[in-house]
Amino acid sequence: MKRYFEEQGSDAVRTMLETATDQHFILRLAIAEVTSAIVRRAMPDVSTRQLTEFNTDMSNNLHMRPLNDELIDDAVLLIQQHRLRGCDSLQLAAALNLADELHQIAIDLELDEAEAELTFVCADDLLNTAATAEGLTVINPNTL
Predict the structure, then answer these.
(1) Domain 10-143 falls in which CATH fold?
(2) Is 52 exposed, middle or buried (0-12, 13-18, 19+ CB in 10 A)?
């Protein structure tokens, strides 16, 4: 949401998305989450512009990760371990799954693992604590 509304951390998120050479991934579930937040938070004329920006980002800047049974199973375990909200646990499960894939790619291609490291970008302290406990590198845009 920080990309589409002016709030703490917005500048950091925009900079990450617009200047980074890294790839950016989101879970398909985020399409519904972001659309809902934009529509519920913005005035009708503003939400149209923000939804257009989000659709452009989905086409040009974001890689979609599928929601599947494995992620749901992993999310349930994360809920039990870290007391996360349902959608947050799905986002973390997807990030952990992608981190594992990137780790395996680094091994297969004999790359330095740092070149294939996933960074989890999130402004939710509870979710960031869980992500850190699970071994992910975390950036909170609110603190940049």
Answers:
(1) Rossmann fold (3.40.50)
(2) exposed
